[in-house]
Amino acid sequence: MRDDVKVSFIVPGYKCDEFIFRNIESILDQDYENREIIFVPNGQWETKDELIKSVQEKYGDKVGILSLEQGNLGNANNEGFAVSTGDVISHLSSDLYIMPGALRNWMEAFDENPKHGMVYSGYKMVDPNPANIYHSNPYDRYHLECENFIDGANPVKRKYWKRWSTDLKSLIDWDWALSVTKDTDAFYIKEPLYYAEMPKQGGLSMDSSNYWIDRRKAVQDKHGIPQRPICVTSLLDSPLALEIAKLTDSDFRLYPGVKPHNYRLIYCYGFMCDEEGIQRSTGVFFQHYGHKIIHWTGYDINSLMSSWNLNTAMYYIDMVLKRINTHWVTTRRDAEVLRWLHLEPEETFLPVRIDESTDKMIAISVSDYDLADQLKKAMPDQEIRVNDLSCEITVHFDDRVTNVTHSLCRGNQVISNQQYAGAYWIQGFTNVPELRKMLVHTIRKIQREKPKMDKADIDFYKVRVNPENFKRKLQKIAEKEIKRYARLEDINTQAKGVWN
Fold this sequence. Notes:
CATH topology of the largest domain: Spore Coat Polysaccharide Biosynthesis Protein SpsA, Chain A
Number of strands: 22
CATH class of the largest domain: Alpha Beta
Helix content: 25-40%
CATH architecture of the largest domain: Alpha-Beta Complex
Number of domains: 3
Largest sheet: 6 strands, parallel
Shape: globular
CATH superfamily of the largest domain: Spore Coat Polysaccharide Biosynthesis Protein SpsA, Chain A
Strand order of the largest sheet: 13-12-14-15-16-17
């Protein structure tokens, strides 16, 4: 790794006597030497001059100090940047401190991903609970426009740095991240690399919590981000939910119930009902007065049936699920189970962006790596690939529904443990050798008979997975009158005793 790249740490602080020394020590403890620290105490407080003197006496020229009369985080960051000389900039606020080796991890990430102008990670909270960690999320610009997951302390190359807002009341790190990523992508580091204090009364975090809807709108208006009436979410498959949001021009939020909002409709893909997931699933709709859709996956229905006795399950259905008017499923079998539970589901396929290419590879695609290895041993004369829908035969076991329907829309010969018209159905076996035998038999049969997918079946799926059709269904529900009784938190206290 190159050590000739200089890193500037700009450390803004207000009434930071309690934290500043810990912050500076964490930077000096890094094993990457080419760095500078610029402490920017901003605003006025009683012990400010004494604190500046203490920092000067303890660290000398190891820490530069830029004292500002005005107390404004955005201005402190901008003024600190103006006197910095580094090639990489980190605005490490005084109540944060970085873990040993974090700086080297940042610089290695820049080295290994030279096209990215920013790298970022999550952080751990300074809290007795060691599990209080914010992990952040993989980078996606569309997701970032819906909610922030990049903290302002994360480093950015100087050429991509942008001025911080001095006008916004809060959420200025989100505003800054949106500005930076207009010109460059950001690289996600999965491990948290620094610590953050819990939000304090009177701070920017508390302001954004108290006035969330207004502060969020101010940032989005500044960046030309539309106020969308529909939000898509999933606790089971968030990448798929993000793709659905993009296809339907909806917001994507990981957990919309955690903040106030004005959505007319929340669509939730998957609704786990086991002991661990049931409260989180119910919480997706917390503080939501509008319409709600649960799109059941099959696994979540099984979790409801297998985790509780029938009386308990029916109580939850009566108290919670029947208050949600729209239940969608992807298979007839799931529809039959929900009807048996006295719900009224509708069979609805997930939207898919179809690859219309007619080129097909004479090979076999399998959705599972272990199963692919098994087939390679059993069929050494065949080319076995993983998750490649351009193959003429595709095998889907416990795969995403969208991969199955996409393959059917391409006219592939599809083998699945889910029942779909036009696909070869093989029940799931826990015994891998038995499953392998069944697959080999079915694949050889397809290769001998060389059947073609019925055009009527292809057209059937293309209509039902069309993103515009799915979008119109969502919009039609969102436009309906909203009845205030639909609020889910009203029933939480009634149901709490059952789940405890």
